[in-house]
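Hi, here's the filled form for the chain we discussed.

Project: internal
Contact: R.S.
Residues: 331
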Amino acid sequence: MELLGQRTMAKRVISTVCLASIWILVACGARLPSGCPPECLGVPLFKRTLSGMNFEEANLRNAMLSQSKLDGANLRNADLSGAKLVSANLANADLRGARLLGANLQYANLGSVLLDDADLSGADLTGATLTGVDLRRVKLTAAVLVEAVLIGCDLRGADLRGISLGGADLRGADLRWAYMKGANLAPPGNREGGANLRGANLTGTILTGANLDGVNLRGAILDYAELSGAGLDGEQLRGAIFANANLSQANLSNALLDGANLEGSNLIGADLLGASLKGSDLLASDLRQAQLILKEGDQVFTVELAGAKVNSDTSWPSEFAPPNTTIFVDQ
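And the returned structure, exactly as it came back:
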């Protein structure tokens, strides 16, 4: 029995030594372990130079690839679920059809990557760079893109339900008809500034129940956007285009909407107390039941409508008379 126990212990020691050797060889830049790729489950590839390598259809689940160089690598249809890719360089990599569910891509460089049909559900892309990337056919449900750089990205029709975009840079991004129900674009933690969507195109985008606190929508296009119940209080919305948008029950209190185009928009029940709509376009807008004036003791809180364009098709709350500072357009 004593001899059997010694043999068992020896086998365990040998097994442990062999495993440690693989880790040391990989970490030191030696050749990849036998069989990898395609079978690379849990393989440590930390800080490795893997530029241009072929990992097509490889199993890289839970692989440790942080700070590795994977620029130009072929990762098509690879499984990277749960992989650690913190600060990895994936520029120009082919990730079409890849699975990255729950992967950690914090501060990774994803410039010019190919991501058609990739699944990044639940992935953490905090601070990642995706400038100009085509994300139209990428699944990003519940992904975290806090403070990510998405300037000029193509997100037309993308499924962005429950996504976190606080502090992300989306200037000039194309989000037409994207599905962003319940998305969080508010500042992360105690930081200032939500997502920057200045000049972005959100035509027809669904933002029902989205958290838009601190978001910059200056000059953004939101024609036909679905924003019912959205929180836009105190937001920077100068020059934004909300033509035919649904803003019913939205919170727009203290929002800056100077020069905004709200022609034909639905503002039924919206809160506009303290908002500034100077020079805005309210032609054919529906403001029935909207909160436009509030009296509290000697104080009166109202909406600023100086220079706003209205017409006979503009609907107002009952007993509200628009001020003579508005401009009536006789059609």
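Let me know if anything looks off before we file it.
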